[in-house]
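Here's what a typical entry looks like (Lactamase):
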Amino acid sequence: MKNMIITWLGQSCFKIDIKSQNEEVTIITDPFDPAVVGLKLPRTLTADIVLKSDPEVKYPIEGREGKKPFVIETPGEYEVRGVFVYAIPFSNQNSPPEFVFWIEAEGIVILHTGSLTRVLSETELQAIEGVDLLMVPVGGGTALDAKKAAELASELEARVVMPMLYKVEGLKLKAEGVEPFLKIVGAKSEQMPKFKVTRKDLPADEMKVVVLEKA
């Protein structure tokens, strides 16, 4: 049985393990600088693919079996070990273009929106239709707040929504907690350490909000 196991390492950093009988692929999204953020990361992180929406952030990530991980930090289309990644740029008036990561593996489409700061236009939304699992900022500050995050989740009709970039214990950066977002979308604040999912597990008719404990 092939499945995904998703672990939240804090901020917009997730570990996505894609497992099958014969192979395992690990993706790390948006590693951060613990000294700046105030949260800890594991001393050793191992991945096959690293997605970075901010190329300036440096954190040591090892590859499997002595190999270097494949790092994606510029817009484009990529295929690595059966995983399709599209780094899609969106213009930002006052800063370099923001881009989001469209990840497709095992029949599941994940959209990781990085530190997205604004609501997307209709044309931009059309470019990212068909999302199964949305990883979205909800804490405001330098990224989307709860209201805008809920609007994006509704417009994309995501089947699973995973909040990120919100206030947790130890965070040095300004952000709201996850509760305002949960209130807007009418979801409970139950947390789980990891989220395991297969294509057939995805909800068919309603949006499911998954709040992960920081690992």
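The chain has a mean pLDDT of 92.

More examples are in the samples folder.
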